[in-house]
Structures are given as C-alpha cells and as structure tokens.
Amino acid sequence: MRGSIRSEPALASDMLFRKVTPLFKETRLQVSIAALFAVLVLPALGGIIAFSYYANERTLREMSQGFMDRARDDAVASVAVLLDPVISALRIVAAVEANEPGYFRRDSSGDVLYRALESAPQIDAIYTSFDDGYHRVVTRIDDDRRRSDPRIKPNANWHMSWIAPYDSSGVRPRVRHRMFYATWPYVIDQYDVTFATDVREMPQYRGAHDRHAVAVSEPTINPDTGAPIIAVGYPIERDGLVVGVVTANITMGVLSEFLGSHRASPNAITVIANRLGTMIAHPVPAQVVRRQDGKLVVAKITELQDAQIVAAVAERTARGEDRFTFTAAGQEYVALFSALPGSATWDWEVGVVAPTDDFVGSLRRTSQALILVMLAVALVESVLIHYMARVISRPIEAVSAQIEEVQSLRFGTALPATSRIREIGQLQRALTLLNNALRSFSVFVPVDIVHDLIDSGRPLTPGVEHRFLTMLFSDVEGFTTLSEELSPQQLSEQTSGYFETVTAALVGEKATIDKFIGDAVMAFWGAPKEVDDHPFRACVAALRASQRMNRLNERWMAEGRKPMRTRFGLHCSDVVVGNVGSPDRLSYTVMGDGVNVASRIEGLNKQFGTSICISESVYEIVSSRVIVRPLGLTSVKGRKQEIMVYELLGIQGSADPDLCENPCETS
C-alpha cells in the first residue's frame, strides 16, 4: 500500500464519524441562524406572554371573587337600608299604641302614621290592625292608584282610611271610610266603600302575632298599583299580649334601583329572592312580575329572562355549591349565592352572576393584542434576522464554496476580506493563504497526491508500493547550445512555453508529472490513481505533445526565435512508486529499472534521429492500435540484455491531426 497504515483507533473514529454524520441533515447557515432565532427567541417570548397572561388571569379571577363578595355585601346592605328604617318606624308606631291604648282609633292618629310613612320613601302604606278588626291606614297616592280608582281626584297625594271593628253579629257589611289629601292634613275628598278583606289573616299579621317579632310576607302584587310589594309586620303588645300589628307595605323600586347601580361588573346581575325562588328584587323591576291567566303575579327566579341567572340556579342545584364557575351559551360565568342576615325572619338570599370576561376580558384582549404585536415584532425581527443572517452567512458561504473549490483543486480567485466581522475576515484571509499555498503545492506535487491528501485528511508519510506503470521522459534537442544562444529572458520564456505545452498534453491523458530535470520532463501513468489502458494513453500523450511542440516551434521560427525540438521515450514495467524521503521532506516518485530504461529509450532518439521511441513492452500492449517503425534491437546503458525499440508514428485509424502519421497531418 502507498503511504503508512492507519492506526485502529483512527479507523474506528473515522467509521463512527461516517455513521453519525448522515443522521444530521445539512442546512444553510442563513437558515440555521433564522431557525436558531425562532427556536430560542419566539418560544421565550411566547412563554413570557403566556406566563404573564395566566398569572394576571389568576390575579384577576381572585379579584373577581372580591368584586362578587362586594356586590353581595352591597345587596345585603341595601336590604338593611330598605328594612331597618321601616322596622324602626313600625317599632315607634307600636310603642305609641302600647303607651296609649286606643290612640289609632282617633282620626288625629293619622298624623303619626303620615310621619312614619314619610320617614322612608320605600314605604308605600302603613297601617295598624287590631284583633277586634279595627284597621287604620295611610298610603301614598300615585298614578297607578289613580288609574285603579277613577274617583280619586287628580290632585290627591295622600290617603287615609279606617274600618270599624267587627260587630257582635258579624253580618253587617264592613265599610272603609276613605279620605284624600292634596296636602296633609287638609281633606279634599272622602267617600266610603265596602271592605271584605280580613287583615288579621294576612301572613305578616299572623307571623308577627304568633312570634311576637317582626314578620315579613311573601312578595305579592298590590291590587291598587299592580306593583310587587312586601308587607312587614310588627306586633303591638300590651301586658305581654299581642293586641294588634302595625304593618308597612314596601315597594321594591328603591331596592331594584340600588341593585341596578351597584353591579359587581358592567354585565353582572344581582338579584334577591326568597328560598322558595320567588323574586324580591331585580335591577329591571319589570322582570319581577309576569302575567299569568290575565293577572299579574310575582315571577319565580327560574322564570327570569336572564338566561345566565336561570342557568346559575340550575347549576347550583346540581352542584350543591354557593360559589362556582359555569358555562352557559358558550360563555363562562362566575356565580355567588348567599343567605341574607336575618334570613330566619324573612328567608331571603342574594344571587350575583357575572361573565368572567368582565374581569379577564380586557386581559384576554390585551393578550391577543400582545400576540399580534409579538407576531409583528417576530415578522420584523425575522426580516432583520434574515438580512443579518445573509450579511453574516454570505461571506461564510462564499468561503465554504471557495473551500470546496480548493478541495477539488479548482483554484479560482480567492475572495478578498470584505466582511466587517473580524473572525470572518480572518477566515477569508486564511482561505486566500490556503488557496495560494495549495496552488503552489500542486505545482510541485502531483495533483492526485494533493487530492488524496485532502480527501483522506491524513498527513503524508514515507512509503512505497509496487505498481505496473508507464513512464515517459522528454528533453529538448541541443538544449545546452540553445541556452547559450538565447538571453536568460528568452530562454525562460521559451522553456516555460515548452513545459506548459508538454505537461498540458500529458495531464490531458491523466499523466502524473513527476518532476522537471533541467530541460527534461518525467511523467508516469497508473499512480497514485489507477489509470485504465495507461500504455496507450501514454502513446497518445506523447504524440499530442510532439505535434503541439512542432506547431509551437513553427510559430517561434515565424517570430524569429530558435525552435525547441522535443524528443520522447516511453517504457512500461513493474516499478516502485510512493513517497520517498524523510518525514520532514518527501517526494512522490517512481524508482526502479523501468525508470532507467524509459530514460535511456528517450536518449535513443538522438541515435536514430527520431522524436518518439517506445519500448517493446509498450508496443506489445498497444501494437494493434498504433503505427510504428521498428528501429531494431539495441542495448541501453545499465542493461546487458538488448531490447527492441520502435518509433511511434501515430494512432491507427485516427483523423486527429495530433495522432495520425505525417501524411495525414500534411494532407
């Protein structure tokens, strides 16, 4: 083998590299830089936005619970604001009757009831009722009441009526004595009407009477106004006995207005209902009532037009929870239900339902905007990265392309150091040096050796091998005399032309130029790379070199210069070829008897007056394809045995002017 044998670890490493390398698909540097940016920057940016979004969403959801609690607390406070003044007024009225029994059976007692009515705007009517059936009431007069009774004068603003106790027989019809006031206490009209209702059977009366405490009725429709009202009763006690009940009818308008103005969020709804589901208050008062069989009735919470409230009630029943998040009609809501303080007395609870978008919607919109901004930034950054990657990668890719040319020994013009990046500029300058070095190296060393050196990646070491090669020697006839006749400049120019012409013809037929020895050229075929049919190729190369030199000589003579007549000798045999020398300085060459024979055969041209002589060993291989003239057996210096020598004249059947006989050339 040519060269030294590689170590086993080196071979194993090389095999591992060859197995692993195909696993990684090669990509362009520009694409790699852009992909690296996308992989490192975009996920990080997306992760930051996602983390910020989820952290902020968690915070806002926690804040939403606070808003819900505040809405609940506001509703509780509104109920207290609604009921506490009413109960205080009822307590005062009851105390008046307890301290002065029979006080509210006099018409002058209407002043106390009037002042109690005026103490709270939510009180629609206030009345005292007793166990014997006596009843006195003071009410407000509004448009609804005027419409309910055409006899009420348009300028009436207040009303008081009283009903006498039941008689002993219980058959006399009860009469309601009505008086109307434009300004209290000036009566502008009065009339009597029959009255069949037994106030003592009303829920608030029975509740307050039986429990000796405040009682609140279920919501009902006031027959005079058509509006929902709640009756609050307070017992009138004397000597520990309940003798009557003072009652206030409360309208829910004030409570509805409060719920409408105190929302947990812009689209939240707060409602109040009792445990049976009957509506107490709604931000839209009209939703508290509905018409059934031609009559107005108080609506149930499950009959509301607000689909989210109805869905929340159903979800609460299914879950058994008072605080939860649910989805209705494709939208997410948060719900809170809570019993009101004092529920043992009036059994109310508040419900708050709000879409989560009210709390996190702005965050989602901001996040969406951030995503759009991120995409826009990523797009701009991608363009900039693409541009910068191109700026960085183009000189590197050019360097890579130049390295590939250098690796294949195609020496183009090295790139100037144009990159502003110092390391790339240094790489370009290093490549220029490498290009020049290899170009120079290839001039002195056979190109195939340089190829092998680059491809193998291993250093040259001394080592030879036996090969069957074809050797060629050439020289210039009378070179010594010619060199004396020419000036150094002329000699250098013509010698360079001679070497260039001959080596081009030889390399064209895959010859390896060994060396230049003065005016002689030494070349061979079959090493370092195998060459098919190299004896024949050597004959073709010698004929081309000879004919091209003839034409070059004709041009020189036409220019008045001296010709350089060239002679060639060819021989093929087994020789030793490889790197010869020391580890510090090597030469790739051939050695052996065959080299000497080839050199001596070239010298026979002078003896026979020929241009190309080939040995018998060459002729035996190419005899059927060449035209030769036998020159006879002759001895060569250094050999005892004579050899047969032939003059090479051309290639049989060739029409190439370089390869046919002289008549072909001149015809």
Name some characteristics of this structure.
26% strand; 3 domains; Alpha-Beta Plaits; Beta-Lactamase; eight-stranded mixed β-sheet; alpha+beta; disordered N terminus; single chain; 667 residues
* Corresponding CATH superfamily of the largest domain: PAS domain
Second CATH tier, the architecture of the largest domain: 2-Layer Sandwich
> Low-confidence parts lasting 5 or more residues at pLDDT below 50?
1-13, 15-24
Shape: rod-shaped
What does this structure look like?
The chain is α+β, with helices and mostly antiparallel strands. The chain has three domains: 68-355, Beta-Lactamase (2-Layer Sandwich); 363-444, no CATH class; 450-666, 2-Layer Sandwich (Alpha-Beta Plaits). The strands form four sheets. Strands 1, 2, 3, 4, 5, 6, 7, 8 and 9 form a nine-stranded antiparallel sheet that branches. A hairpin with a 2-residue loop joins strand 4 (175-183) and strand 5. Helix 9 (357-407) packs parallel to helix 10 (422-444). It is rod-shaped, with a radius of gyration of 60 Å. Mean pLDDT is 82; it is low at 1-13 and 15-24.
Topology:
Elements: H1 8-20, H2 29-99, H3 110-118, E1 123-130, E2 135-140, H4 143-148, E3 158-163, E4 175-183, E5 186-194, H5 203-211, E6 215-216, E7 220-221, E8 228-238, E9 241-251, H6 253-261, E10 269-274, E11 279-281, E12 289-292, E13 295-298, H7 307-319, E14 323-328, E15 331-339, H8 343-346, E16 348-355, H9 357-407, H10 422-444, H11 447-456, E17 463-476, H12 479-485, H13 488-508, E18 512-517, E19 520-525, H14 534-558, E20 566-582, E21 585-591, H15 593-608, E22 612-615, H16 616-622, E23 626-634, E24 643-651, H17 662-666
Parallel strand pairs: 20-22
Antiparallel strand pairs: 1-2, 1-9, 2-3, 3-4, 4-5, 6-8, 7-8, 8-9, 10-11, 10-16, 12-13, 14-15, 15-16, 17-19, 17-20, 18-19, 20-21, 22-24, 23-24
Helix pairs in contact: 2-3, 2-6, 2-9, 9-10, 13-14
